[in-house]
Structure formats: C-alpha cells, structure tokens
Design goal:
Number of helices: 7
CATH topology: Rossmann fold
Number of domains: 1
Largest sheet: 7 strands, parallel
CATH superfamily: NAD(P)-binding Rossmann-like Domain
Shape: globular
Structural class: alpha/beta
Strand order of the largest sheet: 5-4-3-6-7-8-9
Helix content: 25-40%
Order of helices and strands: EEEHEHEHEHEHEHHE
CATH architecture: 3-Layer(aba) Sandwich
Distance between the termini: 4 Å
Mean pLDDT: 87
Number of strands: 9
Strand content: 15-25%
Radius of gyration: 17 Å
Length: 281
C-alpha cells in the first residue's frame, strides 16, 4: 500500500506509479547529475533509502554527510562507506527539532564544503500500531509535520541560498504514495507527505531559473524497519531492497535531460497503478 523510507532521522518511503514526472511541471533541459565530487547531505542516513543513497553516491565519488538521530547506527553506516574507500561523515541530529537545521547545514558544510545535493529522507510514521485520526493525539500529528515537512523546509532554506548564489544545486524530498492515496490509519504520515509534495512544487516554482532543482521521489514499498513497523505481517519477499531503489533513482537523475524541477518521480520496483487501500504501505 503506502510508500515508506527508513529514517525518522532513520526511516523510509514507498509508492506506486510510473517513472513519469507530473504533467504540470515546467520543462527544463539540463544535463544529468554526475555524483563525482558532489557534496551531498542526506537525512535519515543511518538506515533504509537514506543509507543506500549515501553508499551509492559515495561509491560514485560524492563526499557524503549522513544525518540521523541514533549515533550508533549512523556511525556504522559511515564506517561501511569508508571501508569501501568512500568519503562519509556523520552528524547526529534530529531534523524535527526547532534549531537543528542550521546547525546540521553548518556542520555539513564545514566537513565537505557547500552542499550540492540535499536529500530529505528522514521521516516518521507517528505511533505504531497506526491509529485512526480520531485516536491520533495532536502532539503526534505535530511531530509528524515537524519531521516530515518542517524539517525539510528548514534544511532546504539553510542550503538553498548558497545553491542559488552558485547557480546550481539539487534537492530531493522523499515522499510516499500515502501522499496521494487516502489510506485509513495513515492520517498523520499521509497528510505530512502530501504537504511535502506540494512544498516541493512551490520550491520549484520559486527557484525556477536559478539553476536549483527540487524533486519529489516516491521510492515504493521497500524492505526497511519502518515498513516492518507499519506492516508487521507483510510478506518481505515482495519488497524492494533500498539499494536497488537507490540505484534506480541515481540512474534517473543521470538522465539527460533531467526530469523537470517540481516533478514527482515514482521509482520503486512496484511502480504501477495505485492499489486499493489495504491499511498499510
């Protein structure tokens, strides 16, 4: 059912659809993304798609900064990249906290220089088992919005100004099919991802012509901790590996021309028509 990624500052995202951008996005003919030498900042970097993207980008020559709340898994992710000869750094932080974003951006830029690529992959479901809206506490909705929408907004603000001055940059917001499909019990998560999708389109409209591009990515259903927490009885065999999804995303971003800024890309192995709601992602 819904898309998840693995990163509450450690979760994941999944989705359904095809690889086509939204029809309303303005055309923009630009060469594909070359990761070699890029400074990349990835939230939710200790697990799931965030970690997989960090590994794939570092393997292609990017200088990667991974962000997550839990220092242990974060250090493990960084160590794995370094063991393969890649450059990676850890910043332990919670993107949902009010004052976190500028501190994260500052630390990242001190480590790898001005950020060329920002991936907002950190996400939270809210309490599990998932609840009906009538049973959702206001504080839980606020937390989902803080991590899934406001955190990416603040972090984009923190790095986009430098991107504009340099005339180049890429922001990727990781979403879910819960942003476009009304699944019962997915209220806090779905509403926050829908807001993130539209925020992406507005960023793209406002940054048009600056050389800074903003995309939404729905990675489809992946075999991650977040998916397991949301759907403990799901058949794991049918879920995509985060590494495979990361490779597919980087292949799309390497296309020439790139998808138009403001596009919503559905890239999971399960891409296709959205299924009927089943109560899980």
């Amino acid at each position: 059912m819904t898309s998840l990624h693995d990163d509450e500052n450690d979760d994941e995202s999944d989705g359904k659809g095809d690889d086509q951008p939204d029809a309303g996005a303005a055309p923009e003919a630009r060469a594909g993304l070359d990761p070699s030498g890029l400074a990349a900042l990835i939230t939710g970097g200790s697990r799931g798609l965030g970690r997989a993207l960090g590994e794939a980008l570092a393997a292609r020559g990017a200088r990667v900064v991974l962000v997550a709340r839990e220092a242990g898994p974060l250090q493990e992710a960084v160590a794995a990249i370094r063991a393969r000869g890649g450059e990676a750094h850890a910043v332990a932080a919670d993107v949902g906290e009010l004052d976190a974003s500028y501190a994260i951006a500052g630390q990242a830029e001190a480590l790898v220089g001005p950020i060329d690529l920002l991936v907002n992959a950190a996400s939270t479901l809210g309490p599990v088992p998932l609840r009906l809206l009538l049973d959702t506490d206001c504080e839980d909705l606020s937390r989902a919005l803080a991590v899934n929408v406001v955190g990416p907004f603040r972090l984009t603000k923190a790095v986009a100004g430098s991107m504009v001055l340099r005339g180049r940059g890429q922001v990727i917001n990781v979403s879910s099919d819960a942003a476009t499909q009304a699944y019962a019990r997915w209220g806090a998560y779905g509403a926050s991802k829908a807001a993130l999708d539209h925020l992406t389109r507005i960023w793209a409209a406002e940054l048009d012509g600056t050389g800074v591009r903003v995309l939404t990515v729905d990675p489809g259903e992946m075999d991650t901790r977040m998916h397991a927490e949301a759907m403990p009885d799901a058949d794991r065999a049918g879920l995509a590996a985060p590494g495979a999804v990361a490779a597919r995303l980087l292949a799309l971003l390497a296309a020439d021309p790139l998808p138009p800024s403001g596009s919503r890309l559905v890239i999971g192995a399960d891409a296709g028509p959205a299924p009927a709601p089943g109560g899980a992602p």
